[in-house]
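Check my protein:
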Amino acid sequence: MAAAGRRAAKPTKAFVQKVLNFFDEYYPEARCSLDFADPFQLLAATILSAQCTDLRVNQTTPALFAAYPAPEALAAAPLEDVEALIKPCGFYHNKAKSLIGMSRAMTSAHGGQVPQTLEELVKLPGVGRKTANVVLGNAFGIPGLTVDTHLGRVSRRLGLSQNTDPERVESDLAVVIPQAKWTLFSHQAIAHGRALCQSRRPRCEACPFAACPRLGLDG
């Protein structure tokens, strides 16, 4: 564990390139695992994915989008009806409020269109930087770093960031990861976190970075 208050050494370009090469070799098809047909669906699905598996979200959204296929429809939906549809995703009271609030804001301020900038996206109810970057990168092809628990953990263990705050991790990665690879790198690091660099039982014996400059196995 690095000493408190000391700035960790910046990872070398050679090491970062080694990480990128490994990810490209082992996770070439990494992508967003949420099902969506348009930016609105991805935004709604990402809001639902908080503290819920993508599989569960994908099982839930077809009925939601069948009932409310556009933000205008969801904006006018009764709260109780939305809650009933998304209940399997957990925290459905708050998520239903966020979905309806997001839809109302999109309808009134953006003509029913999903904004294409991070600054405008995070103004929508229920939308933080992680959700905004998911939408930017996967719906619009605008590079974004999606710092979830997996990406944060992998980044710390690889020495790409020493921070636990997602926004600071994002800032650290933005310096060392080429911008054109932000979206793909996010998916690849998340895949690595699920496959090998797991929180409680990391499979270091199967990982080429077993001797990486990580901050211990702190999750």
